[in-house]
């Protein structure tokens, strides 16, 4: 899984209206220690005061919930948890709301399954979707809050929103959409909960590739938050709208348009930090604000600087799909980074305590260095974690203390967990994550990636260690002034790297070129054995799962087992060329999790093929384009082994998928691009083939060359056998390769000995909505973009 979505969460702050006296006996087991009680100066104190009043106007169990919500909102989660439970107990389970709030805690911890179960308990309690309330006293007496026009429907919408968020997090798109739509329907227009519900709907549509719906939902979310709170609204939804990039593009020219509009919108919203909508070109403003009613309010919006309150929840997910266009991304990365610095909270760039690294500590040479690794992707078998696993395992523990900080709800994989001095989960809790990193007083902090998930993306702006390093988990520069080093490798970067662009490197960090390939995945154990393929009775068990029509079973299989968003429109020509060039060949692609996206790609490829070969021949060819279902990793390896040729996508290839291909012993065709993300397979090939060998069989220089090489490998058994033999003999070099870890450790040693002199960078100057700057950014990447695509000609 390469992509993480983080839905908007919300905690309800709810008081009931019914006066009700609670027996004071319930207070005997009040769950908080005296030290956990709010002192008179604490904002939650007045609720505690109400609890102490006797008699109270509001049932105590409701006040316990209210006090819990207050604690929850102030980040005092353990106390809040105790109070939510206490509220349920003291109500004799006649009060459902705490279940919904407990769900919000679980969701923040990344535990969406528990969260969903808790919301469903709440819905059972209050009655939902036509069924009557089961235990909530108010709902039984006064009717369910989950009905349209209820004055307490906010509660229910909050719960449904969080259920939608939980389902989204768990990838249950269709369920999530149903639930969020119900919430939308219950709340009606201009509701306080509207910003969250539309925010999540926007996120859902964006992932489904419904870009217009997504833009509309985000703009509506922003409209809601602006109308409900015109003085102190949060512009996160508008920021999300600005950053929207479709997961699947229809054509190369559409990609150019997408990037153009993206740049204009991000520029506009950065400009809005100081000036509101004034001075933004009308066309851009309409594209950004989308909703007519919002556009009409443009004069009232005003400056939005530092208005994003929780930058990780506000972002939900970075502009991940932009990088699959294959263009030079540095200028846009820098633009997005300066936008975050403008819109994010004032302390985005700094740790919460300004003096985490008193100078004296750096001079203490005998002290162990404190090194942190952070990601949401350190779980067992996750490629981003595997990238660093061998490094983390082999760090000299007599000289280093190793801390692994886990974002989200997954556990650290076994090896990483055991290799660390301490594994610290921070969930999706932004203040907790910052506090944790701050208190660790690290000498160095390594991000496995910063482009797949919002928390890592945004934490990267802080300064938690004098040396901050980005590994190539997502092989893209951060554009972020707080990241000092990008660790890449000599083998997979362009040999004329510094001559590629006229004026600058395409990294904002100091680029580190490790010798060799810089990545060594652990050698897998217990792979399904290739001989399974020759046993017909075993064939059936897993082949059936592929839904491959039986008439194609013995056809040559050209397989691209990748996420469909990696298939650039230019790749359609490859698929088309193979279908036409080998009438006894099938092209196998892997369906997306979301059916609609598979449909989009299928339609795009189909219209290309029909354009190329005419209706009749085209449709005939397309019968041999098969979308197989997503498969388990065992079946995945069998799929690679049974394929005749593997097709590596361009302009964004991948490292784990290349190494899987090499492991399977099936030849992989690749076409390197100027940037790291398109050269990783090439890097691996260098480890066991010489230049002539790899260019002979597998490394293409143009789309036509790609098609020819794939066909030759498919049709020429002797050639394929030769390449397979090379892969079998040499492919092992890329796994568990000590020299990779050695390179990494040398780098860490040298850089932590001499940390960068300026740990607190000044924010870069704001460039403004200046047409000159804008034009030059534009030229730079457009030119490069066309160059990177010129292999097409
Ligand atoms: C819960 O049950 C106990 C014992 O039956 C009773 O004393 C108490 O009043 C009940 N509390 C509520 C909130 O109904
Ligand atoms: C609501 O009830 C209907 C009919 O009973 C059912 O089909 C639908 O799936 C339910 N919706 C949800 C979100 O549970
Ligand atoms: C892509 O093409 C399809 C079908 O022609 C169309 O429905 C869709 O709106 C297009 N997408 C974009 C982003 O233009
Ligand atoms: C590890 O990789 C290096 C080059 O990066 C290579 O020279 C060496 O042979 C590999 N080691 C093993 C044990 O395969």
Automatic annotation (TrEMBL):
PANTHER family: PTHR44998, UDP-N-ACETYLGLUCOSAMINE--PEPTIDE N-ACETYLGLUCOSAMINYLTRANSFERASE 110 KDA SUBUNIT
GO molecular function, one term: glycosyltransferase activity
Protein name from the UniProt record: O-GlcNAc transferase C-terminal domain-containing protein
Swiss-Prot/TrEMBL keywords: Signal
SUPFAM superfamilies assigned to the protein according to its UniProt record, in alphabetical order: TPR-like
Signal peptide, first to last residue: 1-25
Domain of life: Eukaryota
A GO BP annotation: protein O-linked glycosylation
InterPro entries membership: TPR-like_helical_dom_sf
């Amino acid at each position: 899984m390469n992509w993480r979505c983080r839905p908007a969460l919300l905690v309800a702050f709810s008081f009931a209206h019914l006066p009700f006296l609670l027996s004071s006996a319930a207070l005997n087991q009040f769950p908080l220690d005296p030290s956990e009680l709010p002192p008179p100066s604490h904002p939650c104190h007045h609720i505690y005061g109400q609890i102490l009043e006797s008699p109270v106007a509001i049932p105590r169990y409701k006040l316990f919930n209210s006090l819990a919500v207050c604690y929850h909102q102030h980040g005092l989660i353990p106390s809040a948890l105790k109070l939510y439970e206490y509220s349920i107990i003291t109500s004799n389970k006649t009060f459902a709301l705490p279940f919904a709030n407990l769900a919000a805690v679980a969701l923040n911890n990344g535990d969406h399954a528990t969260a969903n179960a808790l919301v469903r308990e709440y819905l059972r309690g209050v009655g939902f979707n036509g069924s009557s309330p089961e235990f909530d006293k108010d709902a039984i007496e006064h009717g369910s809050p989950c009905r349209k026009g209820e004055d307490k429907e906010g509660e229910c919408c909050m719960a449904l929103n969080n259920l939608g968020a939980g389902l989204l997090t768990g990838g249950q798109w269709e369920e999530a959409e149903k639930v969020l739509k119900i919430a939308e329907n219950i709340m009606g227009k201009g509701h306080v909960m509207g910003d969250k519900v539309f925010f999540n709907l926007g996120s859902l549509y964006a992932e489904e590739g419904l870009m217009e719906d997504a833009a509309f939902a985000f703009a509506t979310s922003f409209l809601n938050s602006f109308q409900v709170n015109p003085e102190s609204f949060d512009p996160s939804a508008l920021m999300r709208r600005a950053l929207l990039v479709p997961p699947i593009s229809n054509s190369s020219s559409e990609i150019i348009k997408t990037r153009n509009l993206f740049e204009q919108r991000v520029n506009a919203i950065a400009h809005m930090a100081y000036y509101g909508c004034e001075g933004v070109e009308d066309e851009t403003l309409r594209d950004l604000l989308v909703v007519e009613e919002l556009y009409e309010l443009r004069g009232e919006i005003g400056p939005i600087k530092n208005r994003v309150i929780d930058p990780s929840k506000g972002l939900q997910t970075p502009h991940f799909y932009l990088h699959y266009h294959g263009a030079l991304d540095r200028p846009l990365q820098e633009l997005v980074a300066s936008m975050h610095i403008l819109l994010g909270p004032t302390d985005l760039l700094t740790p919460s305590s300004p003096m985490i690294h008193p100078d004296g500590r750096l001079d203490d040479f005998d002290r162990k260095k404190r090194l942190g690794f952070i990601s949401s992707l350190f779980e067992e078998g996750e490629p981003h974690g595997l990238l660093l696993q061998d490094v983390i395992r082999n760090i000299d523990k007599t000289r280093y203390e190793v801390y692994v900080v886990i974002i989200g709800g997954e556990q650290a994989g076994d090896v990483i967990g055991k290799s660390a001095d301490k594994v610290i989960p921070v969930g999706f809790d932004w203040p907790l994550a910052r506090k944790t990193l701050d208190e660790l007083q690290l000498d160095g902090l390594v991000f496995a990636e910063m482009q797949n998930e919002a928390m890592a993306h945004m934490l990267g702006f802080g300064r938690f260690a004098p040396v901050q390093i980005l590994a190539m988990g997502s092989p893209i520069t951060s554009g972020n002034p707080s990241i000092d080093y990008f660790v890449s490798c000599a083998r997979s970067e362009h040999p004329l790297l510094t001559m590629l662009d006229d004026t600058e490197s395409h990294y904002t960090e100091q680029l580190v070129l490790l010798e060799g390939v810089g990545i060594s995945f652990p050698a897998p154990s217990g792979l399904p054995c290739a001989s399974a393929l020759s046993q017909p009775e075993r064939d059936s068990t897993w082949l059936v799962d592929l839904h491959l029509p039986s008439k194609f079973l013995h056809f040559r299989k050209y397989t691209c087992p990748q996420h469909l968003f990696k298939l650039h429109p230019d790749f359609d020509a490859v698929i088309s060329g193979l279908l036409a060039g080998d009438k006894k060949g099938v092209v196998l692609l892997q369906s997306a999790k979301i059916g609609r996206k598979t449909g989009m790609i299928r339609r795009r490829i189909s219209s290309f093929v029909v354009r190329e070969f005419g209706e009749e021949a085209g449709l005939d060819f397309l019968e041999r384009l098969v979308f197989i279902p997503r498969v388990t990793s065992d079946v995945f390896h069998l799929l690679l082994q049974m394929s005749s040729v593997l097709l590596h996508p361009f302009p964004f290839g991948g490292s784990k998928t290349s190494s899987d291909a090499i492991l399977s012993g099936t030849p992989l065709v690749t076409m390197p691009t100027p940037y790291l993300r398109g050269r990783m397979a090439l890097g691996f090939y260098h480890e066991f083939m010489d230049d002539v060998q790899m260019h002979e069989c597998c490394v293409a220089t143009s789309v036509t060359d790609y098609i020819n090489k794939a066909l030759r490998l498919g049709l020429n058994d002797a050639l394929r056998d030769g390449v397979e033999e090379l892969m079998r003999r040499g492919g092992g070099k890329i796994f568990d390769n000590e020299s990779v870890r050695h390179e990494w450790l040398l780098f860490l040693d040298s850089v932590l000995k001499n940390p960068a002199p300026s740990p607190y960078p000044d924010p870069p100057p704001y460039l403004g909505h200046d047409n000159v700057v804008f034009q030059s950014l534009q030229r730079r990447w457009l030119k490069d973009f066309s160059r990177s695509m010129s292999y097409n000609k």
